[in-house]
Design goal:
Radius of gyration: 22 Å
Strand order of the largest sheet: 6-7-8-3-9-10
Low-confidence stretches: none
Pfam families: ABC_tran
CATH superfamily of the largest domain: P-loop containing nucleotide triphosphate hydrolases
Distance between the termini: 48 Å
Bound molecules: adenosine-5'-diphosphate, magnesium ion
Strand content: 25-35%
GO molecular function, one term: ATP binding
Keywords: ATP-binding, Cell membrane, Membrane, Nucleotide-binding, Translocase, Transport
CATH architecture of the largest domain: 3-Layer(aba) Sandwich
Protein name: ABC transporter domain-containing protein
CATH topology of the largest domain: Rossmann fold
CATH class of the largest domain: Alpha Beta
GO cellular component, one term: ATP-binding cassette (ABC) transporter complex, substrate-binding subunit-containing
Length: 291
C-alpha cells in the first residue's frame, strides 16, 4: 500500500452557480509541515480551508486527514466538530463578551474537561504566546496582536491534529507583522502541528512556508519550496506575482537547438519572454545589465 500524506485533497472541485472556484485541486501535507496557499483575493483560498475543515462540502473529490476519508463528496462526511482541527479566522472571531481566558478555554469546556485541567492547559498555551498577563481582559481591551494570539491559543489549546489559518496576519499593524509572524511560526514548529495557512501576501508566504502552493483560476499552478517558486517560476504569472519580476517580450535565438522536436520540448513560457528581478540587475557606466 502506498504511504499516505497526513493531509490529502484529491481532485477537489467546487462551483457556485457558473463560477467554478476550484477545479480539481489536489494537495498533500506531511505531518508537521507548514503549507501556505498563496493566491490573490477571490482565487478560492478560504474555500479550500473551509472544505478541509468541513464547513463547506466539495462537489467532487476527497478530503483525507490522518488516513481517514472525511469527505468523499458523496455519502462520507465527517462534520467539522469531529475533525479535530483548530481554525484561526482572519477577523479572529473572538467572543466579545468573554475574557481572553474564557475564549481560550471555550473548546475545552465544550469537551467537558475537568476545571483544573482546563486551567492548566490555558495557562500553558498563554505562556507560550506571552499573553498570561491579559487573560482577564475582554477582546476590546486587547491590541490587534494580542487578539490574534488569543485566537491562535484558542485554536491550539485542544491540541488538534491540524491547524488552519486564514490570512491571520492581515489585521496586524504592519510594523509588528514580521515579529508576530516569526513567533507564530516558531510556536507551530515547536508544537509540531501540521498547518495550512492562506494568504495573498507573497512575502508572508516566502517567510513562513515549508511548501507554497500557488492558486490561480481554480487550480494549483505551482507547488514548491519558497526558493523553488522564487527561482524557478513555472510561468509569467507566478514570476510576477511572487516578487515582481520584470518581464519583457523577447525574440530568443537559440542557436544550439538542432531540431524542431528539441524546440517543442521547451515549455512555451521559455519562448517569447525574458524575466529578471531588480536585485539581479546593476547599473554601470555602460548602462543597465541583467545578470
Ligand atoms: N457562499 C458563496 N456563494 C457564492 N460565491 C461564493 C461563496 N463563497 C465564495 N464565493 C466565491 O468564490 C470565490 C472564491 O472565494 P474565496 O474562497 O473566499 O477566495 P479567497 O479566500 O481566495 O479570497 C470568489 O469568487 C467568491 O466570490
Ligand atoms: Mg479568503
Amino acid at each position: 500500500m502506498r504511504r499516505m500524506a497526513f493531509l490529502e485533497l484529491r481532485n477537489i472541485s467546487k462551483s457556485y452557480g457558473k463560477n467554478r472556484v476550484l477545479d480539481k485541486v489536489s494537495l498533500t501535507a506531511e505531518k508537521s509541515e507548514f503549507l501556505v496557499i498563496l493566491g490573490a483575493s477571490g482565487e478560492g483560498k478560504s474555500t479550500i480551508l473551509n472544505i478541509i475543515s468541513g464547513v463547506i462540502r466539495p462537489d467532487e473529490g476527497e478530503v483525507v486527514i490522518d488516513g481517514r476519508v472525511v469527505d468523499d463528496s458523496n455519502k462520507t462526511y465527517v462534520p467539522p466538530e469531529l475533525r479535530d482541527i483548530g481554525y484561526v479566522f482572519q477577523n479572529y472571531a473572538l467572543y466579545p463578551h468573554m475574557s481572553a481566558f474564557d475564549n481560550i478555554a471555550f473548546p475545552l469546556k465544550m469537551r467537558k474537561l475537568p476545571e483544573e485541567e482546563i486551567k492548566k492547559r490555558v495557562r500553558e498555551v498563554a505562556e507560550m504566546l506571552r499573553i498570561s498577563h491579559v487573560l482577564d481582559h475582554k477582546p476590546s481591551q486587547l491590541s490587534g496582536g494580542q487578539q490574534q494570539r488569543v485566537a491562535v491559543a484558542r485554536a491550539i489549546v485542544k491540541q488538534p491534529k491540524l491547524l488552519l489559518m486564514d490570512e491571520p496576519f492581515s489585521n496586524i499593524d504592519p510594523a509588528l507583522r514580521a515579529s508576530v509572524r516569526w513567533e507564530i511560526k516558531t510556536l507551530v514548529k515547536q508544537v509540531g502541528i501540521t498547518t495550512v495557512m492562506a494568504t495573498h501576501d507573497q512575502e508572508e508566504a516566502m517567510s513562513l512556508a515549508d511548501k507554497i502552493l500557488i492558486l490561480h483560476k481554480g487550480k494549483i499552478i505551482q507547488t514548491g519550496t519558497p526558493e523553488e517558486i522564487y527561482n524557478r517560476p513555472v510561468n509569467t504569472y507566478v514570476a510576477d506575482f511572487v516578487g515582481g519580476m520584470n518581464i519583457l517580450p523577447a525574440n530568443i535565438l537559440i542557436p544550439q537547438i538542432e531540431s524542431i522536436a528539441e524546440l517543442k520540448s521547451l515549455s512555451v513560457e521559455n519562448i517569447g519572454y525574458i524575466g529578471f528581478r531588480a536585485e539581479h540587475t546593476r547599473l554601470d557606466d555602460q548602462g543597465i545589465k541583467a545578470e
